Protein backbone atom coordinates (compact mmCIF):
# COMPACT_ATOMS: atom_id res chain seq x y z
CA UNK A 1 0.00 0.00 0.00
CA UNK A 2 1.48 3.38 -0.88
CA UNK A 3 1.73 5.97 1.82
CA UNK A 4 0.77 9.64 1.73
CA UNK A 5 2.85 12.17 3.66
CA UNK A 6 1.16 14.53 6.11
CA UNK A 7 3.23 17.55 7.13
CA UNK A 8 2.60 18.56 10.75
CA UNK A 9 3.76 22.16 11.19
CA UNK A 10 5.62 23.34 14.29
CA UNK A 11 5.90 27.00 15.32
CA UNK A 12 7.60 28.26 18.47
CA UNK A 13 4.90 27.59 21.08
CA UNK A 14 3.06 24.81 19.25
CA UNK A 15 2.33 22.04 21.75
CA UNK A 16 0.06 19.52 20.02
CA UNK A 17 2.36 18.56 17.13
CA UNK A 18 3.59 15.40 18.87
CA UNK A 19 0.02 14.34 19.65
CA UNK A 20 -1.03 14.77 16.02
CA UNK A 21 1.95 12.78 14.77
CA UNK A 22 1.14 10.11 17.38
CA UNK A 23 -2.52 9.95 16.32
CA UNK A 24 -1.42 9.49 12.71
CA UNK A 25 1.69 7.32 13.02
CA UNK A 26 0.76 5.06 15.92
CA UNK A 27 -2.95 4.85 15.30
CA UNK A 28 -5.40 4.34 12.53
CA UNK A 29 -3.76 6.99 10.40
CA UNK A 30 -1.03 4.53 9.55
CA UNK A 31 -3.60 1.88 8.65
CA UNK A 32 -5.15 4.53 6.42
CA UNK A 33 -1.90 4.88 4.49
CA UNK A 34 -0.64 8.08 6.12
CA UNK A 35 2.75 8.99 7.48
CA UNK A 36 3.16 12.17 9.52
CA UNK A 37 6.40 14.14 9.32
CA UNK A 38 7.48 17.35 11.06
CA UNK A 39 7.56 20.60 9.12
CA UNK A 40 9.39 23.54 10.73
CA UNK A 41 7.78 26.99 10.37
CA UNK A 42 10.77 28.39 8.46
CA UNK A 43 10.23 25.89 5.65
CA UNK A 44 9.21 27.62 2.45
CA UNK A 45 8.65 24.51 0.34
CA UNK A 46 6.18 21.71 0.88
CA UNK A 47 7.48 19.44 -1.83
CA UNK A 48 6.73 15.79 -1.10
CA UNK A 49 3.91 16.74 1.27
CA UNK A 50 0.37 15.58 0.37
CA UNK A 51 -1.57 17.25 3.20
CA UNK A 52 -0.82 19.62 6.06
CA UNK A 53 -1.99 19.72 9.67
CA UNK A 54 -1.47 22.91 11.68
CA UNK A 55 -1.74 21.72 15.26
CA UNK A 56 -2.82 23.45 18.45
CA UNK A 57 -0.82 25.35 21.01
CA UNK A 58 0.29 28.87 21.71
CA UNK A 59 2.34 29.92 18.69
CA UNK A 60 4.44 32.96 19.62
CA UNK A 61 2.81 32.93 23.04
CA UNK A 62 -0.53 34.12 21.57
CA UNK A 63 1.00 37.62 21.52
CA UNK A 64 -0.87 40.28 19.54
CA UNK A 65 -3.73 37.87 18.73
CA UNK A 66 -3.69 34.07 18.66
CA UNK A 67 -2.19 32.97 15.36
CA UNK A 68 -1.41 36.49 14.12
CA UNK A 69 2.39 36.13 14.08
CA UNK A 70 2.47 32.52 12.87
CA UNK A 71 0.28 33.55 9.93
CA UNK A 72 3.22 35.62 8.60
CA UNK A 73 5.72 32.73 8.58
CA UNK A 74 7.34 31.32 5.41
CA UNK A 75 5.55 27.98 5.79
CA UNK A 76 2.15 29.68 5.71
CA UNK A 77 2.99 31.26 2.38
CA UNK A 78 3.66 27.75 1.04
CA UNK A 79 0.49 26.40 2.70
CA UNK A 80 -1.53 29.20 1.07
CA UNK A 81 -0.17 28.33 -2.38
CA UNK A 82 -0.71 24.59 -2.03
CA UNK A 83 -4.18 25.08 -0.52
CA UNK A 84 -5.11 27.10 -3.58
CA UNK A 85 -4.14 24.08 -5.69
CA UNK A 86 -6.45 21.86 -3.62
CA UNK A 87 -4.12 20.31 -1.02
CA UNK A 88 -6.01 19.27 2.15
CA UNK A 89 -5.18 21.52 5.12
CA UNK A 90 -6.45 20.92 8.66
CA UNK A 91 -6.06 23.57 11.37
CA UNK A 92 -6.77 22.45 14.92
CA UNK A 93 -7.46 25.06 17.62
CA UNK A 94 -4.41 27.37 17.36
CA UNK A 95 -4.14 25.96 13.83
CA UNK A 96 -7.69 27.21 13.12
CA UNK A 97 -6.73 30.61 14.56
CA UNK A 98 -3.67 30.69 12.25
CA UNK A 99 -5.80 29.80 9.19
CA UNK A 100 -8.14 32.71 10.02
CA UNK A 101 -5.25 35.13 10.50
CA UNK A 102 -3.63 33.91 7.27
CA UNK A 103 -6.86 34.59 5.37
CA UNK A 104 -7.32 30.95 4.38
CA UNK A 105 -10.65 30.93 6.20
CA UNK A 106 -13.03 33.86 6.76
CA UNK A 107 -13.82 35.51 10.10
CA UNK A 108 -11.88 35.94 13.33
CA UNK A 109 -11.55 34.56 16.86
CA UNK A 110 -12.40 36.50 19.97
CA UNK A 111 -11.85 35.58 23.60
CA UNK A 112 -14.37 33.14 25.04
CA UNK A 113 -17.38 35.05 26.32
CA UNK A 114 -16.68 33.84 29.87
CA UNK A 115 -13.14 35.27 29.60
CA UNK A 116 -11.93 31.90 30.86
CA UNK A 117 -9.79 29.19 29.34
CA UNK A 118 -12.13 26.24 28.73
CA UNK A 119 -10.78 22.70 28.79
CA UNK A 120 -13.43 19.98 28.60
CA UNK A 121 -15.21 17.65 26.20
CA UNK A 122 -17.98 19.15 24.09
CA UNK A 123 -20.43 17.76 21.57
CA UNK A 124 -20.44 18.89 17.95
CA UNK A 125 -22.62 17.99 14.99
CA UNK A 126 -21.12 17.12 11.62
CA UNK A 127 -22.69 19.54 9.14
CA UNK A 128 -20.55 18.83 6.09
CA UNK A 129 -19.22 15.45 5.00
CA UNK A 130 -17.83 16.17 1.52
CA UNK A 131 -14.42 17.27 2.78
CA UNK A 132 -11.16 15.26 2.91
CA UNK A 133 -11.42 15.18 6.71
CA UNK A 134 -15.10 14.39 7.28
CA UNK A 135 -16.11 12.02 4.52
CA UNK A 136 -16.34 9.01 6.86
CA UNK A 137 -18.79 10.73 9.22
CA UNK A 138 -22.53 10.63 8.70
CA UNK A 139 -24.31 13.93 8.08
CA UNK A 140 -25.76 15.14 11.40
CA UNK A 141 -23.62 12.73 13.44
CA UNK A 142 -22.86 13.94 16.98
CA UNK A 143 -19.22 13.68 18.10
CA UNK A 144 -17.67 14.12 21.51
CA UNK A 145 -14.36 15.95 21.24
CA UNK A 146 -12.27 17.94 23.75
CA UNK A 147 -11.73 21.68 23.52
CA UNK A 148 -8.93 23.62 25.25
CA UNK A 149 -8.79 27.30 24.40
CA UNK A 150 -9.15 30.89 25.50
CA UNK A 151 -9.87 32.41 22.08
CA UNK A 152 -12.47 30.16 20.48
CA UNK A 153 -15.36 32.56 20.18
CA UNK A 154 -15.75 32.61 16.40
CA UNK A 155 -16.87 35.91 14.91
CA UNK A 156 -18.24 36.85 11.51
CA UNK A 157 -20.62 39.71 10.73
CA UNK A 158 -24.24 38.51 10.37
CA UNK A 159 -24.34 38.91 6.56
CA UNK A 160 -21.00 37.12 6.27
CA UNK A 161 -22.28 34.30 8.49
CA UNK A 162 -25.44 33.98 6.36
CA UNK A 163 -23.23 33.65 3.28
CA UNK A 164 -21.10 30.97 5.01
CA UNK A 165 -24.25 29.04 5.91
CA UNK A 166 -25.60 29.31 2.37
CA UNK A 167 -22.36 27.97 0.94
CA UNK A 168 -22.30 25.15 3.51
CA UNK A 169 -18.99 26.26 5.01
CA UNK A 170 -19.95 25.41 8.59
CA UNK A 171 -18.52 21.90 8.88
CA UNK A 172 -18.96 21.36 12.63
CA UNK A 173 -21.41 23.05 14.98
CA UNK A 174 -21.62 22.94 18.76
CA UNK A 175 -24.68 21.01 19.88
CA UNK A 176 -26.21 19.16 22.80
CA UNK A 177 -25.65 15.45 23.44
CA UNK A 178 -28.62 14.57 21.25
CA UNK A 179 -27.69 17.00 18.51
CA UNK A 180 -29.68 19.97 19.90
CA UNK A 181 -28.63 23.02 17.90
CA UNK A 182 -26.52 25.37 20.06
CA UNK A 183 -27.82 28.35 18.05
CA UNK A 184 -31.16 27.63 19.74
CA UNK A 185 -29.93 26.05 22.98
CA UNK A 186 -27.25 28.55 23.91
CA UNK A 187 -26.10 26.55 26.96
CA UNK A 188 -24.47 24.10 24.53
CA UNK A 189 -22.35 26.87 22.98
CA UNK A 190 -19.19 26.71 25.12
CA UNK A 191 -17.49 29.93 24.03
CA UNK A 192 -20.19 32.12 22.45
CA UNK A 193 -19.19 31.39 18.85
CA UNK A 194 -21.33 33.09 16.20
CA UNK A 195 -23.59 30.54 14.54
CA UNK A 196 -22.26 28.07 17.16
CA UNK A 197 -19.42 27.46 14.69
CA UNK A 198 -16.96 24.81 15.91
CA UNK A 199 -15.41 24.10 12.50
CA UNK A 200 -15.33 25.90 9.18
CA UNK A 201 -14.21 25.07 5.63
CA UNK A 202 -13.31 27.15 2.64
CA UNK A 203 -15.93 26.99 -0.15
CA UNK A 204 -13.98 24.22 -1.92
CA UNK A 205 -13.86 22.14 1.28
CA UNK A 206 -10.11 21.31 1.21
CA UNK A 207 -9.23 23.67 4.08
CA UNK A 208 -10.85 22.88 7.44
CA UNK A 209 -10.32 24.68 10.74
CA UNK A 210 -11.83 23.44 13.99
CA UNK A 211 -11.54 24.36 17.66
CA UNK A 212 -11.94 20.81 19.11
CA UNK A 213 -8.95 18.47 19.13
CA UNK A 214 -9.51 15.25 17.13
CA UNK A 215 -5.99 14.03 18.03
CA UNK A 216 -7.06 13.96 21.69
CA UNK A 217 -9.99 11.70 20.80
CA UNK A 218 -8.34 9.15 18.54
CA UNK A 219 -7.97 6.13 20.82
CA UNK A 220 -10.22 4.56 23.48
CA UNK A 221 -7.76 5.18 26.30
CA UNK A 222 -8.40 8.91 25.78
CA UNK A 223 -12.14 8.52 26.42
CA UNK A 224 -13.35 9.08 22.85
CA UNK A 225 -12.43 7.79 19.43
CA UNK A 226 -14.67 10.23 17.64
CA UNK A 227 -11.71 12.09 16.15
CA UNK A 228 -10.21 9.00 14.52
CA UNK A 229 -12.20 9.20 11.31
CA UNK A 230 -10.63 12.57 10.47
CA UNK A 231 -7.36 10.70 9.78
CA UNK A 232 -9.12 7.75 8.16
CA UNK A 233 -11.08 10.13 5.95
CA UNK A 234 -7.89 11.90 4.90
CA UNK A 235 -6.18 8.58 4.09
CA UNK A 236 -9.11 7.48 1.98
CA UNK A 237 -9.36 10.83 0.20
CA UNK A 238 -5.64 10.93 -0.66
CA UNK A 239 -5.66 7.30 -1.83
CA UNK A 240 -8.61 8.04 -4.08
CA UNK A 241 -6.86 11.08 -5.50
CA UNK A 242 -3.72 9.06 -6.18
CA UNK A 243 -5.81 6.61 -8.14
CA UNK A 244 -7.59 9.42 -9.98
CA UNK A 245 -11.04 8.58 -8.63
CA UNK A 246 -13.47 10.06 -6.14
CA UNK A 247 -13.52 9.00 -2.50
CA UNK A 248 -16.77 7.36 -1.43
CA UNK A 249 -18.30 8.80 1.75
CA UNK A 250 -19.79 6.82 4.64
CA UNK A 251 -23.24 7.71 3.41
CA UNK A 252 -24.26 4.89 1.06
CA UNK A 253 -23.72 6.04 -2.48
CA UNK A 254 -22.50 9.47 -1.33
CA UNK A 255 -19.62 10.98 -3.19
CA UNK A 256 -16.82 13.24 -2.08
CA UNK A 257 -14.58 14.93 -4.55
CA UNK A 258 -11.21 13.17 -4.52
CA UNK A 259 -9.58 15.44 -7.03
N1 LIG B 1 -5.16 24.29 22.45
C1 LIG B 1 -4.85 25.34 21.74
O1 LIG B 1 -4.50 25.25 20.58
C2 LIG B 1 -4.87 26.66 22.43
C3 LIG B 1 -5.41 27.68 21.50
C4 LIG B 1 -5.13 29.13 21.81
N2 LIG B 1 -3.79 29.46 21.89
C5 LIG B 1 -6.06 29.65 22.87
O2 LIG B 1 -5.89 29.45 24.05
O3 LIG B 1 -7.01 30.26 22.46
Automatic annotation (TrEMBL):
InterPro entries tied to this protein: Class_I_gatase-like, PRibForGlyAmidine_synth_PurQ
EC numbers on record: 6.3.5.3, 3.5.1.2
Active site: 93, 213, 215
Location of this chain's protein in the cell: Cytoplasm
Chief site of localization: cytoplasm
Pathway(s) annotated for this protein in UniProt: Purine metabolism; IMP biosynthesis via de novo pathway; 5-amino-1-(5-phospho-D-ribosyl)imidazole from N(2)-formyl-N(1)-(5-phospho-D-ribosyl)glycinamide: step 1/2
Catalytic activity: N(2)-formyl-N(1)-(5-phospho-beta-D-ribosyl)glycinamide + L-glutamine + ATP + H2O = 2-formamido-N(1)-(5-O-phospho-beta-D-ribosyl)acetamidine + L-glutamate + ADP + phosphate + H(+); L-glutamine + H2O = L-glutamate + NH4(+)
Keyword set, alphabetical order: ATP-binding, Cytoplasm, Glutamine amidotransferase, Hydrolase, Ligase, Nucleotide-binding, Purine biosynthesis
Task of the protein: Part of the phosphoribosylformylglycinamidine synthase complex involved in the purines biosynthetic pathway. Catalyzes the ATP-dependent conversion of formylglycinamide ribonucleotide (FGAR) and glutamine to yield formylglycinamidine ribonucleotide (FGAM) and glutamate. The FGAM synthase complex is composed of three subunits. PurQ produces an ammonia molecule by converting glutamine to glutamate. PurL transfers the ammonia molecule to FGAR to form FGAM in an ATP-dependent manner.
Listed HAMAP family: PurQ (MF_00421)
Complex formation: Part of the FGAM synthase complex composed of 1 PurL, 1 PurQ and 2 PurS subunits.
NCBIfam families found in the cross-reference section: FGAM_synth_I (TIGR01737), PRK03619.1 (NF002957)
Protein's name in the database: Phosphoribosylformylglycinamidine synthase subunit PurQ
Organism: Geochorda subterranea
Amino acid sequence: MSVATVGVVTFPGTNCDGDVRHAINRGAGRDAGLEAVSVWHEESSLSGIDAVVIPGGFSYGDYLRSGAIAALSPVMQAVRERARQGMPVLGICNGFQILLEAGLLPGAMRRNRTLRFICRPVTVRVERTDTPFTLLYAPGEVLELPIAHYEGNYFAWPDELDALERRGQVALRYCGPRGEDARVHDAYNPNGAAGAVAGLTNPEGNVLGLMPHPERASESVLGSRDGLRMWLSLGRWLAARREGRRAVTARAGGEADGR
